[in-house]
């Protein structure tokens, strides 16, 4: 074989690489699709067991949803400086190793929904100060502590719905001062404590529906000056204080309060009557509020009973008042009768002595 022939054969494997470089092509993971025009890497539903290597450094969107990831390892995304959107929903992720996401300093949207996370690591928010939207819904989370969400100062939307959250540290949301939407729907919360939302002055939508909430402390909603929607439907509320809702000093707030085991008495009727007279509060599902107790009111809508509840109570109070008055009058009459008898006996005794 001639020297020129060998030279040509030796250079042939280099031609595709040179051609790729000349045309500006980039390496792409074998199991993924890379779209040059949009810097999008599509790795959806490829049965991947780990984050693939060789993702182009200038990738803007990486979609890893619908795979079989169980662990996100440390330094899995190192070098992806341009990444803005990372989608990892519908995997089986149980563990986020330390600093697994900390290199994504410009990430704006992170979707970890529909996984098997039981806890949020303490360093979870480290390096993610640009994040605007975080989805952690449909996981197995049970508790929110005060460190896991600590560096999300720019976060605007947080979805924690459909987990198993029972408790939250009072300072769990302290760093989230720019949050506009918080969803905690379909968890296992029992109460909403004063101070939990103390830094959420920008919050516009708060979804707490379908928990086990039976108590909302008086000042719990007070910081929410921009709230437009409050979802409390499907909880365990039997009563609610008017003052608790009056603390919502907003321009206009729409309330969802049906599907609770309300005790329909005069006190509850007065609370809703007062709410109706507050210009900025609107109970959107008032006609769907159904009584759970007392037994003879069970199944009736609060709207259909309306002022009857207080009429019955007023009648009861009136009967009691009349009964008491009659008892007092009877006691006075008896006392007067006894006084007169004593006076008559005294007069008779005086007359006898004079004789």
Automatic annotation (TrEMBL):
Keywords per UniProt: Leucine-rich repeat, Membrane, Repeat, Signal, Transmembrane, Transmembrane helix
Signal peptide: 1-24
PANTHER family: ANTIGEN BSP, PUTATIVE-RELATED, LEUCINE-RICH REPEAT-CONTAINING PROTEIN 15-LIKE
Gene3D superfamilies (alphabetical): Ribonuclease Inhibitor
SMART domains from the UniProt entry: LRR_TYP, LRRCT
Domain LRRCT: 260-311
Name of the protein in question: Leucine-rich repeat-containing protein 17-like protein
GO cellular component: plasma membrane
Transmembrane segment boundaries: 315-333
């Amino acid at each position: 074989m001639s020297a020129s022939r060998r030279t040509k054969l030796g250079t042939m494997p280099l031609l595709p690489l040179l051609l790729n470089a000349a045309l500006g092509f980039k390496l792409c993971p074998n199991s993924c699709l890379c779209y040059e025009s949009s810097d999008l890497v599509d790795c959806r539903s490829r049965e991947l067991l780990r984050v693939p290597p060789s993702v182009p450094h200038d990738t803007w969107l990486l979609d890893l949803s619908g795979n079989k990831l169980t662990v996100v390892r440390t330094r899995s995304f190192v070098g992806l400086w341009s990444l803005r959107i990372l989608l990892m929903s519908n995997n089986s992720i149980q563990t986020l190793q330390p600093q697994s996401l900390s290199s994504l300093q410009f990430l704006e949207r992170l979707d970890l929904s529909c996984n098997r996370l039981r806890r949020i690591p303490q360093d979870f928010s480290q390096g993610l100060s640009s994040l605007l939207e975080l989805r952690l819904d449909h996981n197995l989370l049970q508790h929110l502590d005060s460190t896991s969400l600590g560096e999300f100062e720019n976060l605007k939307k947080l979805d924690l719905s459909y987990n198993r959250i029972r408790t939250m540290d009072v300072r769990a949301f302290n760093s989230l001062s720019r949050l506009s939407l918080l969803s905690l729907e379909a968890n296992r919360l029992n109460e909403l404590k004063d101070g939990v939302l103390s830094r959420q002055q920008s919050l516009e939508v708060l979804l707490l529906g379908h928990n086990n909430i039976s108590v909302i402390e008086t000042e719990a909603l007070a910081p929410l000056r921009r709230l437009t929607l409050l979802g409390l439907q499907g909880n365990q509320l039997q009563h609610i204080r008017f003052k608790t809702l009056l603390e919502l000093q907003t321009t206009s707030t729409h309330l969802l309060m049906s599907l609770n085991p309300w005790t329909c008495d005069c006190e509850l009727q007065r609370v809703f009557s007062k709410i109706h007279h507050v210009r900025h509060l609107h109970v959107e599902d008032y006609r769907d509020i159904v009584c759970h107790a007392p037994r003879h009111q069970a199944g009736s809508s609060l709207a259909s009973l309306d002022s009857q509840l207080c009429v019955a109570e007023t009648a009861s109070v009136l009967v009691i008042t009349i009964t008491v008055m009659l008892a007092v009058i009877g006691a006075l009459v008896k006392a007067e009768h006894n006084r007169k008898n004593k006076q008559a006996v005294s007069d008779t005794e005086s007359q006898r002595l004079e004789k």
